Structure formats: structure tokens, C-alpha cells
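Q: what sequence does this backbone want?
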């Protein structure tokens, strides 16, 4: 973990673009509550093939205009160089200086990936077009990307993104700290020393979590799964158990030298804030 200990810890929260006026209002309330904790930035997700593209742009610009650092996700599958360039120009003109560069998922019905096939190509394009105007975050997969051939191939892909100019990485969420520590060890052997910030998913709804985890290849350890299943519809017990488990995991990560935490908020205040307060975290500023 020596490569990670040298970085100043930073904390961030992730939102998805709301689809209704009620969702927009709820997100404003969430944003203002979490902004009081002083995160380094708020990131905003981007749907498959740009299905939420305008929502991402609108949400990012609103966060920025409210005086906070915003980091839009930029997904390259199904995009053209021209469309990516116009978004980079828009963000640059609006003072946005951080991008989360992702490959993204192939939209249903689409046969070809478009002009970019992998995230490292997107990172290289951003660097070529904008030099160092953007801090570029990329994704990392301690439990291996679900579409990767094997762990080594996945690590090689990650290194391509770093070599193309990524400044730091956010991991897929996980509940097994050993997977993260082992991944960092392998990164160090490969000469990778950028900050690799653990992605943290609070546990509030077992059914939803199980569905997400199946899609993205995040393992829910059997003992956690069995406990959550045993609570049935008892939401309070699920929430209390989830908060305790995730808090303990974050304590272990930070004590070992993880360079911060990135919370997948699901546009909710309570779960992420509870973990933050349990950990006694300080502002990233």
C-alpha cells in the first residue's frame, strides 16, 4: 500500500442524473446536505450510449453553478470524436476541470462500438485534445471486470489507461478488502502508483444490491448475503447492519492507507452521511 499512502486522502460523492422534476428537487436537497461535509467533488453518471447525456450535462452544470466541483462521467462507446470534443469544449467553457473517463456499456441494438473501443483510447483522446486541462479519473476493478478474460488481462487494461494519461482511479464497489489490497499490490508490481480510491456502496436494499452486483461482478460475501436475506423486509435491520459492515470496511481501508473514499450515494443523503460521521472524516478541502 506504499504507493497509496503518499497521496492525500480525498472524499467524493456520486450522483445519477434525475429523470423527473421531483428527482431534481430531491437531488438538490441531497447535494446541499452532502456539500456541508466538504467533499473534493461530486461526480455524475452517464447512461449507456449517452442515454442520460443531457441529464448528465444539466446536473453537472447546476452543481458547478452552485459553487461545487463537479466531475461528469464521459462514456465513449457509441460516441464519435466530434461528440466527445463538443462535450469537452462545453465543460471547459464552464470551468469543469475533472472528468471520469469510462468505456461504458454498448447500448441495446447497437452492433459496433463506434470510434472508441476502450477507455484508454478516450483518455488518450482527451489528453491529445486538451493537454492537462482535465484531471482524468478512470475505473478500476479489484474483483476483475466482468468482461475481462482474466485478472492479468484486466490489470493490463488498467495500465493502458494509466499510461494514456489517467491521474487517478475509482474502484468498482466491493465488500472484500483483501481484493482491494491484492489489486494494489499487483498495480505496484506493474509500476502503477496513481491514487486508486475505493468505491463505497452503502447497503440499504438487499434486492437492489444483489441485482447491481450481478451486473457489475461485485461479490457480496456469503455471510453478508445470508444476514441480509435473514432480515427479509425489515429495512431498519438491513440499514443498521449495512452501516456497521461498510463503516468497518472503510476503517480498515483508511487505516491501511487507502487514498480516500468515493461514495455511490444512489442520490440519498442518509446512508453515506452516516458512514462519514461514523468514520469522523474531515473535509477534502
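A:
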Amino acid at each position: 500500500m506504499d504507493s497509496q499512502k503518499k497521496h492525500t486522502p480525498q472524499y467524493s460523492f456520486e450522483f445519477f442524473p434525475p429523470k423527473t422534476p421531483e428527482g431534481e428537487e430531491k437531488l438538490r436537497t441531497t447535494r446541499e446536505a452532502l456539500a456541508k461535509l466538504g467533499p473534493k467533488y461530486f461526480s455524475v453518471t452517464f447512461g449507456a450510449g449517452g442515454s442520460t447525456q443531457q441529464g448528465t450535462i444539466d446536473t453537472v452544470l447546476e452543481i458547478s453553478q452552485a459553487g461545487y466541483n463537479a466531475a461528469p462521467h464521459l462514456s465513449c462507446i457509441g460516441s464519435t470524436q466530434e461528440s466527445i470534443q463538443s462535450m469537452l469544449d462545453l465543460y471547459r467553457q464552464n470551468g469543469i476541470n475533472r472528468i471520469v473517463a469510462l468505456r461504458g456499456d454498448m447500448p441495446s441494438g447497437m452492433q459496433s462500438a463506434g470510434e472508441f473501443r476502450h477507455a484508454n483510447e478516450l483518455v488518450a483522446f482527451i489528453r491529445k485534445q486538451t493537454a492537462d486541462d482535465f484531471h482524468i479519473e478512470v475505473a478500476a476493478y479489484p474483483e476483475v471486470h466482468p468482461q475481462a478474460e482474466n485478472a492479468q488481462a484486466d490489470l493490463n487494461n488498467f495500465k493502458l489507461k494509466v499510461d494514456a494519461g489517467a491521474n487517478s482511479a475509482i474502484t468498482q464497489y466491493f465488500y472484500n478488502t483483501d481484493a482491494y489490497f491484492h489489486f494494489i499490490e499487483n498495480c505496484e508490481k506493474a509500476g502503477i502508483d496513481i491514487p486508486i480510491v475505493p468505491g463505497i456502496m452503502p447497503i440499504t436494499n438487499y434486492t437492489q444490491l444483489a441485482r447491481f452486483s450481478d451486473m457489475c461482478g461485485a461479490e457480496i460475501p456469503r455471510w453478508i448475503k445470508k444476514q441480509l436475506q435473514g432480515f427479509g423486509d425489515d429495512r431498519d435491520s438491513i440499514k443498521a447492519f449495512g452501516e456497521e459492515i461498510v463503516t468497518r470496511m472503510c476503517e480498515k481501508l483508511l487505516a491501511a492507507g487507502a487514498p480516500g473514499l468515493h461514495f455511490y450515494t444512489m442520490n440519498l443523503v442518509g446512508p453515506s452521511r452516516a458512514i462519514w460521521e461514523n468514520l469522523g472524516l474531515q473535509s477534502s478541502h
